[in-house]
Fold this sequence. Notes:
The protein is an alpha/beta fold.
Amino acid sequence: MANVSVYNMEGKEVGTIELNDAIFGVEVNEHLVHMAVVNQLANKRQGTQKAKTRAEVSGGGKKPWRQKGTGHARQGSTRAPQWTGGGVVFAPTPRDYSYKLNKKEKRLALKSALTSRVQENKLIVLDELKFDAIKTKNMKAVLDALNVKKALIVIGENDQNVVLSARNLADVKTALTNTINVFDILKYSTLVVTKAAVEAIEEVYA
Length: 206
């Protein structure tokens, strides 16, 4: 099992914690991680694009000129794609881009992402993260003490003082243990996790 240092909110090391190899020490499967990220981005797509085909554009009912004898190329409608105001060829229509990823694949991708953060020394464990009031500068002070700028902060319980204190920082996002995902873990350069959150993750995913 990997041993990781535990820090307090002042950035001082106060101990170590053993991480479960079943979650933080698996063999990293880059293909599954890529699949999970593509799946998540596809599921977020709105899919409301629309353009009209020649069947949907108004007008064009009459043949613009007779078939033969004019010197022009033959034309059947002024709403064909080559005409100004004509329809679009293979026009985009509203569609649902989302698709399912198998549960086991999602879990293994998440474990691979967490393992990669441990291997790259980009996982920081805090003994606790609590504020008496909602203040952005308190969260900024904690991150400065840890020498962290772009971070995903995972907490064990929905502490509004912590969540709202981090909300106004551009490169910081908070997440609960049941809302962490591969995309966010990889997007932020550092993963900051409380001890309580580590225990909750190990309990759910082990």
